[in-house]
Amino acid sequence: MTNSHLIGFILCVVTYSIGLLVQEKTKWTICNPFLLSMSLILFVMLTTGYSFEQFNKGAMYIAFFLLPATCGLSLNIYRQKHILKAYFIPSVLGCVVGSIASMSVTYLLCMLLDIEHTIKLSTLPRSITSAVAADVSTQIGGIPSITLLCVVLSGMFGAMFIPLLTKYMKNVNSVALGIGIGSSAHVLGTAKAIELGEIEGAMSSIAISISGLITVVLATFIS
Questions:
Q1: Neighbours of 15 (CB within 10 A)
Q2: What confidence tens digit (pLDDT) does each residue in 131-146 have?
């Protein structure tokens, strides 16, 4: 049974559904469905001996939908194209500043903590979507697997703390909020931005693309 490709798929669906239910019941920020799902899957693996290779046989079917789901965000952008036209230059500048700030702060923290150079390079593209981050990491001499871990953690913590930040940041411009979320917490953050509003979701979606392009350009200077 554990060799079945469906087990990993079912495990993802069931654990994420549990995560959604827990978040709905508790309303706690820390009860992020993604975090709970990941924790439950790790618990199952550690207690049953179910290997990652076996799990990935089924999980790969969900991973297949990552790219179409990301492309689906373009619908939000289309619906808010008039907002994008009105705030095009500020949006691009916001993504430029966000990308530079993300990479600079990450690099400085790695220097302060005396982290190995290869690991340091692996953490730099942490704020862009995984499909782009892995290629950027390879280009600059990083380790893609470590990069993807950093991408997941950045998005997860972004999605967890976005509601908390919006609670204390009153009267923040919806466009600015969306750009900030998309340029720092990529797809996972964008999923939360869509819950905040259509404008936030659309701007966060466009920020994913722009920030990805900017990070690729910046990475050429690093490499």
A1: 21
A2: 788 888 888 888 888 8
